[in-house]
Amino acid sequence: MLATTAAAATAAAVGPLATATAAHAAPTLPDGTSKDKVLVVGMDGLRHDVIDAAKAPHLKSMMANGTYGTSLLYADP
Q1: Residue 71: C-alpha distances to residues 46, 52, 60, 62 (Å)
Q2: What confidence tens digit (pLDDT) does each residue in 13-53 have?
Q3: DSSP annotation of 24
């Protein structure tokens, strides 16, 4: 009984939020356009010069077609 009551209360609270979110959905992009995306790849302990010597065609392709750093500093949290 308690689980059913909790589920009903949750549905009652979340329902209006879901409706409000759907009503304010992001507009679709015009034809021929795309939303840019960013992929950040970090590999602990990997030096950039080792990638050149490795057989890593996918990493090399990402480096050739994107941006990469050769002197990034590690910041200890």
Answers
A1: 12, 15, 17, 18
A2: 555 555 555 556 777 888 888 888 888 888 888 887 788 88
A3: T
